[in-house]
Amino acid sequence: MRSGLLYGTGPELEVAVAVVLRAAGFTVTELDAELGTKSADLLAVLDQETCLIEVKAASGAAPEKLVSYLQRHLEKWPQLRPDQPVTCSALIVNHQHRLDPAQRPTEVYQRNQHKEFVDALTFPVLATGQLFDWWRAQDWPAVRTAVLGRPQPSPPSTSSTVQSTVNAPRQRRSWFRSRGANSA
Question: Model's pTM, two decimal places?
């Protein structure tokens, strides 16, 4: 997951984003397999919300033209699936992916450099680094809020499960194998 979200491009990045969205409770359809490149990359459905998701990567600063790809897909969507209107959309970008994640700006488009552009956006633009942080912390409400552009109430049945899981002590697993006497 870390590699896909923080360094991935193309299908690898799309798959990693889909995994995070599914973990957050969305039902995700990978649209490239169904519709080719005529549409956005993912369709994420949660309750009554249907979100068109465009996933992009930029080795440097994200160009503003990435927004136009999602806008174009939103315009085409009614012809592709007239029986399934979208209620929201989001652009998810792995920007500056050649840099160490700690050196990247947290926002895809910084307000101080792109104020008018950012103020005019009609959908959220999310950095994959932030998705990774939420995935690592299992902060599914944050993912849902960011993608939908507003808070989404949790169903009562899952909130008690989430609460008991959050309060339960977890055993930490090491990312690396220990180098004991039996290691080669």
Answer: 0.78
